[in-house]
Every structure is written in structure tokens, then in C-alpha cells.
């Protein structure tokens, strides 16, 4: 039987959970919550990429509510998950294409290697299964591999891919794709873009031109600008958001590759720093491993409460109950 998404989320976050939850278990084994314990916990939260602001607020909350009391690692994990969920709840906003726009145009941006093209393919599958007609645009025209990858996804999920010749003008391609999508009654048009951030000026001009040219046909396009981030980059993701917010009007985030990282806490830091909607997270290579973001599920998956800890003899022991069937 295939794992449910919550099980896959927990599995994908296992490295982050082991880093954060395992660290908590090492610090708190029926220990009084004093200044030294709080300092260790704050260091642990910062090392887990939650960011200094979130870490400071969590510590202050614990100081005001539990200081001087004896606590267990399970109590700390439960309270920490609740604090993280409170940070994430305002930004856990599913991406819902606006039916008033047919098609709803989503410009997908991000650094090369962050998983933009794969994310677009997974989104096409997800929204196609919701009954929407989805079309994709291979707008990273200077990278033949990106065009081919998107075409493979198109065949896989049954969504048309609009591509041009190598090195074609991305803005012209987006314009033609928008006209075709409108004519064919598409609900969602997903546009892949270049991500050569080392040449910021050229990338800014290319993205601005795509938007400017599309608006000659639909002055409201694009209706969303989705920034794809790679969780394995940790704090560098913060800088990427800042840079892309300078280039375009980013409306929401998608965080990928959480399964390959012990840095899942970066999602919390992103939420706290920018307040941008986090639409979805990716926790694996399969098409179904990109799903709408849930604050509570993510917080529980990141912190525990069900984790595997190493016993002194090197064997693993189970802490808490398993995932419900």
C-alpha cells in the first residue's frame, strides 16, 4: 500500500527531525528548564535553520510559561510544534487558480537547480487531477535539458507543453502560449523561466519582458509569480527570496527537496521573515510528493513527536506512537 502524504512528509523530513528532535532529546531528559537549558535549546533551534527571530520568540514563550519546571523532551517537542505551527499557520495558503482568469497564468521563477521544471510537472499533474485543463510553457529556452524535461513531464501527466526552437525569445513564446491557452480554454498556464542568477541584470530584463509582452494580450497577467526554493540551501534561500522580490512581484513560495535535507526549519524562517504564502512543499521524487502546505502537519513532521532515537548501544528505539494508518 502506498504511503499517505503525511507519512511521506514525515519520511521526507526525517533528517530534519533527527537533527532537531534528536537534539531536544539529548538536552531534555527530565531536566529543569533553567537558563542553561534554554540557551542550549536556542542554539539548537538556530542550528536547525528556524532563524534567530523565531528561536528568540520560542525561548521567551518557554521562559514565561515553563521556566524553573522539570520538563521532558516529549513536552518540549509538543510545545515547540505548537509554536512552529503558530508561525506557519498564516502562510499556509493553498495555490488555487482563479476561475475568473482563463487561463490563470502562473510565472514560475527560481534559481537553476532548485527544481522549477520538476515542480511545474508535478503541479500539472496535481491540478489536472482536480479536473483543470493545464498547459505548460518551456520558457527556459536556453537550456535544452529543461525543455526536454518539461516535455517528458507533459507526456507523463497528459498536459500540452508549448516549446519553441532553441534560444527562442522567451517573451514571444509566453505571448503565443497565452493566446493558445485562451483559445483552447485552458484553466491554468504554468510558465517555466530561466534562473541564471549570476547575471541578475539580464535575468531581471528577461522576466520583465515576459510580463510586459504578455500584458499586451492580457493586462492582468501573470496572475501569480511562484518562487521555487531548494530546502537544501538552508539560509541561502532567504537571500534568494530577497533577490527575486527585487526582480518580480513574488506572490507565493514552493519549497522543494525537503527529503534531501536536514534543513527543513528554513520553511519556518521564510514564513517569519517574509510572510509570503507557502503554497506547497516537495518531499520526494514522485509526482505525488508535491502537495499543498499544512502548517500543523509540517510542524509535527519537523519536530516529531514520533522519532527514532539512537540508544547508547547504537540500536534504534521508537519514541512515541507510529503514524496512524
UniProtKB/TrEMBL annotation:
**GO biological processes:** SRP-dependent cotranslational protein targeting to membrane
Residues in Signal recognition particle SRP54 helical bundle domain copies: 9-88
Per UniProt, subunit arrangement is: Part of the signal recognition particle protein translocation system, which is composed of SRP and FtsY. SRP is a ribonucleoprotein composed of Ffh and a 4.5S RNA molecule.
Tell me the domain of life.
Bacteria
Q: How does it sit in the membrane?
A: Peripheral membrane protein
Which intervals hold domain AAA+ ATPase? 102-253
Q: Molecular function (GO) terms listed?
A: GTP binding; GTPase activity; signal recognition particle binding
The record's family statement is: Belongs to the GTP-binding SRP family. FtsY subfamily.
Which catalytic reaction applies to this protein? GTP + H2O = GDP + phosphate + H(+)
Name-wise, this protein is Signal recognition particle receptor FtsY
Q: Which residues bind GTP?
A: 110-117, 192-196, 256-259
Indicate, by first and last residue, each region the UniProt record lists as having compositional bias (Basic and acidic residues): 314-325
Output the Gene3D superfamilies linked to this UniProt entry. P-loop containing nucleotide triphosphate hydrolases (3.40.50.300), Signal recognition particle SRP54, nucleotide-binding domain (1.20.120.140)
Role, per record: Involved in targeting and insertion of nascent membrane proteins into the cytoplasmic membrane. Acts as a receptor for the complex formed by the signal recognition particle (SRP) and the ribosome-nascent chain (RNC). Interaction with SRP-RNC leads to the transfer of the RNC complex to the Sec translocase for insertion into the membrane, the hydrolysis of GTP by both Ffh and FtsY, and the dissociation of the SRP-FtsY complex into the individual components.
Q: Residues annotated as region Disordered? A: 304-325
Q: What is the lineage of its organism?
A: Bacteria, Pseudomonadati, Pseudomonadota, Alphaproteobacteria, Acetobacterales
Originating organism: Gluconacetobacter takamatsuzukensis
By its UniProt entry, which Pfam families does this protein fall under?
SRP54 (PF00448), SRP54_N (PF02881)
Per the record, its GO cellular-component terms are: cytoplasm; plasma membrane
Task: Name the predominant localization.
Answer: membrane
Looking at its record, which EC class is this enzyme? hydrolase
Keywords associated with the record: Cell membrane, Cytoplasm, GTP-binding, Hydrolase, Membrane, Nucleotide-binding, Receptor
Amino acid at each position: 500500500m502506498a504511503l499517505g502524504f503525511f507519512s511521506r512528509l514525515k519520511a521526507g523530513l526525517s533528517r530534519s527531525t533527527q537533527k532537531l528532535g534528536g537534539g531536544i532529546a539529548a538536552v531534555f531528559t527530565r531536566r529543569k528548564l533553567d537558563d542553561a537549558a534554554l540557551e542550549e535549546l536556542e542554539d539548537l533551534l538556530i542550528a536547525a535553520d528556524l532563524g534567530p527571530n523565531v528561536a528568540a520568540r520560542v525561548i521567551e514563550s518557554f521562559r514565561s510559561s515553563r521556566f524553573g519546571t522539570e520538563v521532558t523532551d516529549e513536552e518540549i517537542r509538543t510545545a515547540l510544534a505548537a509554536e512552529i505551527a503558530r508561525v506557519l499557520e498564516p502562510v499556509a495558503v493553498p495555490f488555487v487558480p482563479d476561475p475568473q482568469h482563463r487561463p490563470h497564468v502562473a510565472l514560475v521563477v527560481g534559481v537553476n537547480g532548485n527544481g522549477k521544471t520538476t515542480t511545474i510537472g508535478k503541479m500539472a499533474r496535481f491540478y489536472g487531477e482536480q479536473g483543470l485543463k493545464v498547459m505548460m510553457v518551456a520558457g527556459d529556452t536556453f537550456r535544452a535539458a529543461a525543455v526536454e524535461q518539461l516535455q517528458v513531464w507533459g507526456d507523463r501527466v497528459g498536459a500540452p507543453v508549448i516549446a519553441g526552437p532553441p534560444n527562442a525569445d522567451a517573451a514571444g513564446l509566453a505571448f503565443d502560449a497565452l493566446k493558445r491557452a485562451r483559445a483552447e480554454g485552458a484553466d491554468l498556464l504554468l510558465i517555466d523561466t530561466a534562473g541564471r542568477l549570476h547575471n541578475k541584470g539580464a535575468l531581471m530584463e528577461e522576466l520583465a519582458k515576459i510580463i510586459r509582452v504578455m500584458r499586451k494580450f492580457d493586462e492582468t497577467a501573470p496572475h501569480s509569480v511562484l518562487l521555487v526554493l531548494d530546502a537544501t540551501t538552508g539560509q541561502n534561500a532567504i537571500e534568494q527570496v530577497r533577490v527575486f522580490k527585487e526582480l518580480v512581484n513574488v506572490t507565493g513560495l514552493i519549497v522543494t527537496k525537503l527529503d534531501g535535507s536536514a534543513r527543513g526549519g528554513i520553511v519556518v524562517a521564510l514564513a517569519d521573515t517574509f510572510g509570503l504564502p507557502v503554497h506547497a512543499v516537495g518531499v520526494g521524487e514522485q509526482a505525488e510528493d508535491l502537495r499543498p502546505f499544512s502548517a500543523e502537519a509540517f510542524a509535527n513532521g519537523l519536530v516529531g513527536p514520533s522519532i527514532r532515537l539512537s540508544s547508547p548501544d547504537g540500536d534504534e528505539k521508537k519514541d512515541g506512537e507510529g503514524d496512524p494508518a
